Amino acid sequence: MAAAVDLSHVTIRFGDFTAVDDATLSIEPGEFFSFLGPSGCGKTTLLRTISGFIEPTEGVVRIGGEDMKGRGPNARPTALIFQNLALFPMMSVADNITYGLRVRGVSRAERRKTAERLLDLIALPGSADKRIDELSGGQKQRVAIARALAVEPKVLLLDEPLSALDLKLRQHMRNELRAIQRRVGITFIYITHDQGEALTMSDRVAVMNRGVIEQIADGRTLYTAPRTAFVASFVGENNGFPGRVSAVDGEIAAVETAVGVLRGRNLRKLRVGSDAVLYVRPEALVIGRGSELFAGVAQTAAFEGTLTHVTFATRGDRPVTLTAAGRAAEAIPSEGEEVVLGFDPASALVVPAEGGAHA
Amino acid sequence: MHSSVGKVLIFALPVVVIAWFWATALMERRRLGSLAPLGFVQRNGVAVATYLVLAVALWAVVMIVLPQLFMVDLSFRPKLPPPQVGGEKDVYTLANYRYFLFGSATDTSSWNTTHLQAFGLTIVASVLITAFNFALCYPLAFHMAKAAPAARVRLLMLLLIAPYWVNEILRAFAFRILLGSGGVLNQALLGLGLIAEPIDFLGLDVGLYAGLSYAYLLLMIFPLYNAIESLDTNQIEAARDLGAPWWHIHLFVVMPHAKPGIASGCTLVFMLTAGALAAPLVLSGPRTLWFTPIVYDRFYQAFNWPQGAAYAFILLIACIVFVLTVMRLGRLTLGEITR
Ligand SMILES: Nc1ncnc2c1ncn2[C@@H]1O[C@H](COP(=O)(O)OP(=O)(O)O)[C@@H](O)[C@H]1O
Ligand SMILES: [Mg+2]
């Protein structure tokens, strides 16, 4: 079976500026796939290229195995949900939802049936004849989804569709979106700068930075085994110790950092002498235990109920954060207290320094 | 007695209108209570407020309301030598309107075909010119509002506006020179050997319609441009993404959004074209009779002011009916058009 969407060495330039650099990936039918990256990293550009608004400068976009070159957005089996939704304010909810069917010459009665079926799907029954400005933010959101689903696309593309909603609604819509995707069973390609959204909803996530796809993996892998310094620091909280690899012993590498020599897993098989960053998650740090030890002075403690976050000043130039849960939180050092922090090499990761050798 | 009715109408009506506005404002204030925003008077003092209200009222009454009411009143009176004005022969009459229809103030046996035809031609041609203006301006306005880069928009604006720095009469004469039998266009066609002898563009009214179409182009472009510019470009893209061909997008996404602009552009162009004087005077062929020169002639050729007033009033009513019809057809309110 052909991949739902297949990008092969896709590069997109605006003049001299490279917005997307050599993207190659394959998205399976029925997959919930996300692009995650900071604002301006080229996510929207890539999505618009898949939907046909932009022709790639180089490379090939295939949808369902077919080369999409020269096919405009109205001739592709995709539907795009815009960042600002772009509903038609002068049409009713039902007319919005069935706009794509009207274009295709579907009869009025047939359209009405589809509108009602989709309104049931998005849990807004009885709203067919409302005006768009009578809907709340979350309801508009769902109408935009229904409008896109009405044309029965093979691939639904969503450009930060939840960013305009408030926090509570956003959390709710995450589950809703995932549930809708399971029900309709088509491929969703989702764009976000919010890692929480990407990790909770997606089967797989592509992390982007400055036009480059740095890693494609499921959320757990991104968290536990980031391949680059950018992914390690962008996905979840992390403590980075830049330095140079001083020794390699099988799976483990030792890195000479500002706070001393620290060891961690060397999944990228860095060689001695390469610039590297050793990452330890805040929840992997403990006080006074572990084989890798370094000194720190407690600065601030933020009590958050189940979790407590403590920051420490070290000899490195960045503060280090420790997250303690449950009973461990009772042993929090007071401000100014000097302690020894430690971790296990198995819970730390050595990755190439940004801009350094990609071994 | 009858003339006192006219005077009462002229002087009392503005007062009634102002009082009406005042009363509605007061009522609104009472209804909103303390929620009402701080009033203009509280902010600027009684003196300033009184001056402004009086100045605006005076301007509106003296410059707009009074002359119009005077003309309407005049149109229902007979033409009399000055000593008899206000005398016993100065009675209200429909004679001027009768003249428009039958070519005689008393006899109703035959129609006043010349004037009725001119009137009909003016209305129909104005509608067609308005439609032509719309067809010409819509693509340009859309291009400027949605497709062109900023530098090109500025250039196009300049190219559109610059010719209008030349006054209307001069522009009309320029068309004469361009289209005359020895004009640039004929010379070019002759030179290229496309025609054997000059075409009488002016006699064929090509000049008149070209001049009229060009005269109020800007008043179509700008409302259209403003209306289309305010459309979210994503809506156009969303329609395209949903499979719509370009004409469908224009018909069902762009035009419904731009409806107020379309309506205000069309009504402006229609009214001004139907009421245009310079272009018809300069560019009319020998056979065409545009309605406005006829109105003009009533005043200055026939020295029959009451009749001229009646003719002008007929044209005004026709224009208002047209505007109201357009608004009704487009399901628009006056507020939307003037937005
Ligand atoms: N049409 C364009 N012309 C020039 N630069 C563009 C254009 N579209 C996007 N860019 C640039 O490409 C980069 C990526 O933009 P975008 O894909 O919108 O980022 P994201 O959606 O990840 O925030 C930005 O730096 C933006 O300025
Ligand atoms: Mg974006």
Task: Set out the fold topology.
The complex is a heterodimer of chains A (359) and B (339).
Chain A: E1 5-14, E2 17-27, E3 32-36, H1 43-51, E4 58-63, E5 66-67, E6 78-81, H2 93-97, H3 99-103, H4 108-121, H5 137-150, E7 155-159, H6 167-184, E8 187-192, H7 195-201, E9 204-209, E10 212-217, H8 219-224, H9 229-234, E11 239-249, E12 252-257, E13 260-265, E14 275-280, E15 286-287, E16 292-303, E17 307-313, E18 320-325, E19 338-343, E20 348-352
Parallel strand pairs in A: 3-8, 3-9, 6-7, 7-8
Antiparallel strand pairs in A: 1-2, 1-4, 4-5, 9-10, 11-12, 11-14, 12-13, 14-20, 15-19, 16-17, 16-19, 17-18
Chain B: H1 2-32, H2 40-75, H3 95-102, H4 113-147, H5 150-161, H6 168-179, H7 184-191, H8 206-215, H9 218-229, H10 233-241, H11 246-274, H12 278-283, H13 291-300, H14 305-329, H15 334-337
The structure holds adenosine-5'-diphosphate (ADP) and magnesium ion (MG).
Task: Characterize the structure shown.
Chain A is of the alpha+beta class. Chain A is built from nine helices and 20 strands. Chain A has two domains: 220 residues, P-loop containing nucleotide triphosphate hydrolases (Rossmann fold); 119 residues, Nucleic acid-binding proteins (OB fold (Dihydrolipoamide Acetyltransferase, E2P)). The mean pLDDT of chain A is 92. Chain B has two domains: 73 residues; 225 residues, Orthogonal Bundle (MetI-like fold). Bound molecules: adenosine-5'-diphosphate (ADP) and magnesium ion. The site of adenosine-5'-diphosphate has 11 residues of chain A, from strand 2 and helix 1.
